[in-house]
Amino acid sequence: METGEEFGPWLARQLKLAGKTQAELAEELGLTRAAVSAWITGRSTPRPTVMVDIAKALGTDVGTVHTRTTDTQAGLPVTWYHRPGYLDGGRDLGNAAAFAFDADVQVLARETCQNSLDERRRNGRPVRVRYTLHELTGEVLEDFRDAILWNDLFPHYSAVSENAGNQKVGRVVDAGVRDMYEKGRLILLRVDDYNASGLTGDDYTDGKFAAVVRRQLESLKSDSGAGGSYGLGKATLWATSALGLVLINSTLSESHEGRTERRMIGRLELPWREVDGKPYAGPAWFGRPDPDSPGAEVARSWWADEETAARLHLTREGDEPGTSFLIVGAHDVAILDEKSSDADDESVDVHEEGNEDTHDIRRMHRRLVKALGRDFWAAMTGGGGRLPLLEASVRTMRNGDVVVPDEQVDPSAEQPARTRALRAYYEGTTVERVTEAGQVAARSVPLRLPLAGGTRGTLGTHQATLLVTEATGDADVPKNQVHSLRGNRMTVRKAGVSNLPLGTNPFQAVLLVGEAAGDSAPFAKEAEDFLRAAEPPEHDRWGQTEELTLRWSPSAYRRINALTYEVNSAIRELVARPKRSSREGGEALRKALTVKKARSKVKAPTGPVVPVLTELDATIGDDGEWRIAAEVSIPRGDEITPMVPVAQLEVRSGGRPKLDWAELVAVEGCDVEDGILRFTPGARRAKFRGSTDVTSHTVRTALTRLVLELRTGKGE
Questions:
Q1: Are 651 and 700 contacting, i.e. CB atoms less than 8 angstroms apart?
Q2: DSSP readout, 69-127?
Q3: Distance from C-alpha of 531 to C-alpha of 333, rounded to nearest angstrom
Q4: Residue 398: in which H helix or E strand, if any?
Q5: Is the pLDDT of residue 587 over 60?
Q6: Which 3 state secondary structure label does DSSP give 481?
Q7: In 3-state terms, what secondary structure has residue 377?
Q8: Is the separation of the CB atoms in 59 and 25 below 8 Å?
Q9: pLDDT band at 75 (very low <50, low <70, confident <90, very high)
Q10: Chain-wide mean pLDDT for the chain?
Q11: Sequence-ordered list of residues with C-beta below 8 angstroms from that of 85, at least 6 positions apart, any chain
């Protein structure tokens, strides 16, 4: 017979749950208090005949006492605990962490899938993540509301709705409740992962459970290649719920209280409210009251039975470790920003608002599949004996019936060219330069890592791997872009390549940095640490961050700019069409038949000449700055006038606002001194590049147009 927890700790907890003392149990059993104390401290165990009496005293069956894999159902019932209002009168009108992200299922997919990758068990097998959209109506909806004790929650939702006009979170919650009642439906979005660690640890002390359920801004990622670092990603779960409610069922990789299966808890995020004259601070928890808490009110996790898990729509498949998050009242506000119309798509549910329904389960299904393929194609790609890190799927249901079958996300369908490139790298079939269709070129590019603590110098050079291939099969994927990723193989940065040669064939590129470049890459772990610190909470770019400044220096981000320059230069060299030899047929014949004309001598002007700006390429960088690459034509002359590049914003009237330079770098035919271009004598052209200082921007960059002028020292 399988046994769980040690008898002593298990019995002590059951007495707390039942509200009994050791002396009261001893009296019911006709034994001394010392005998019960010996059981609890582990000095002895009761005889089998006594276990029968213990089961009766605890109101359970003798099998539960023998196995001790679950708590007895006697004592304090599962209920909601709402945090009381602060004694000093302070009010929280919502969880600020949730505002770091939009109520967008694609953002949710990115953050939750990243967390599952970070919690993958290191056993060589991928973590499996499944997203289930489930619309409840009618009796199924009523049964679910009974299971979550909706009648106990309703007064709190009503109190929030009464003040909904005064603050943002209240308006969202009010809209979510109205949608459920007016349309008679509730959307559940469940995120299950398997072959993950699960929410291990105590309810209150340091551990993964407390970090997710009890705390904010705490990240317990121990792996250097982990994606998360801010402890904010979990907030997307509650941000995606119009009701602010998430239920959790976790199967643990390490036992807690002698058990691993069906560890349940719920957390509700509401703004400050007053119910029946009593103020409540905001969050609430759904669980079993902890006998050790004041008044036995604080709810802690509990070990649920299979029937309870089924009623809460949290039944997991098998006993593989991992966690299920159930988002109650899921909505996708970002649907409203989609430019394409689905009016002619028969798979889209059209409600009274037409296509403005943020609870459209078919649309949400498609957006989840698209996001997973876009951001995690590399994690889902294997090859050369290497298994993928991730398997992901999406399914959609209504009242238990399948609406859209389980759809496995196929990286080769979502990102054909890049998937081909990564597989070629894993299989060792890359080439130095693409000469035939389907080939993948590989090139090493340097990332020079700075010394920590603001010390000048370089720690070492990490060799990242750049892969380039033709963009064949990428019908709906933007071309000529680089996807950059590190250890967990989630796409962190997507960027175009500037100054491509004319006539360049469409291509796709992949940059593998840090541990993604392989264990043998020098300074791989150091590169992981550096780039992880350079990511914002959204983990969608590398650039200047507060952590980067504090741990390295305010200029450390320039190492990333230098990496980008190296990558773009390598790509331009790889995709450039090779120049034809002058001895090749037509060219040689043309020269043989051409009558050469005598060149007329052009007299070089005397005195200073003024260079002219002839080419300009400008893009918006990851941090909102303007990035420029410019070319200057220099007339023949004895003296070349130094010039000052001036960046300005185009305006309809009045003077153009001037922008400061964060960086101004000479590339060819010139030098930069204190913002002045000084040209090499005899040069006929010069190139330079730069980026503006975003702190000098008076308007959001995406809403502006850039004007670049070359002025002499006299301002001309």
A1: no
A2: SS--S-SSPPEEEEEEPPTT-----S-GGGGGS-S-HHHHHHHHHHHHHHTB-SSSSPE
A3: 31
A4: strand 390-398
A5: no
A6: strand
A7: coil
A8: no
A9: low
A10: 84
A11: 91, 272, 274, 278, 279, 280, 281
| Identity of residue 456 | R
Q: How far apart are CA 357 and CA 534, in angstroms?
A: 37
Looking from the CA of 238 toward its CB, the CA atoms found within 13 Å total 25
β-strands 608-609, 639-640: how paired? parallel
Name which of 32, 31, 16 is nearest 76 in CA terms: 16
CB count within 10 Å of CB 342 equals 18
Q: Cβ distance 665 to 686 under 8 Å?
A: no
Residue-wise DSSP of 659-683: E-EEEEEEEESEEEETTEEEEPTT-
| E strand or H helix that includes residue 421 | helix 416-427
Number of neighbouring beta carbons within 10 Å of residue 25: 23
Residues with Cβ < 8 Å from 562, sequence gap 6 or more? 447, 448
pTM of this structure: 0.72
CA distance 682 to 636: 8
Burial class (CB in 10 A: 0-12, 13-18, 19+), 193: buried
Distance (Å, whole) CA 122 – CA 107: 26
How big is the CA angle at 311 (ends 309 and 314), to the nearest 5 degrees? 40
What six digits make up the tokens of 95? Answer: 């969880």
Other beta carbons within 10 angstroms of residue 457's beta carbon come to 7
Q: Which residues pair with 246 in a beta bridge?
A: 267, 327
Written as one letter, the residue type at 230 is: Y
Q: What is residue 463's three-state secondary structure?
A: strand
Q: How far apart are alpha carbons 406 and 34 in whole angstroms?
A: 58
Three-class secondary structure of residue 687 per DSSP: strand
Determine the Cα–Cα distance for residues 543 and 546; give it in Å rounded to an integer.
10
Instruction: Give the Cα separation of 703 and 688 in Å (integer).
Output: 25
Q: Which of 67-81, 83-97, 627-641 has the highest mean pLDDT?
A: 627-641
Q: CA-CA distance, 313 to 190, in Å (whole number)?
A: 9
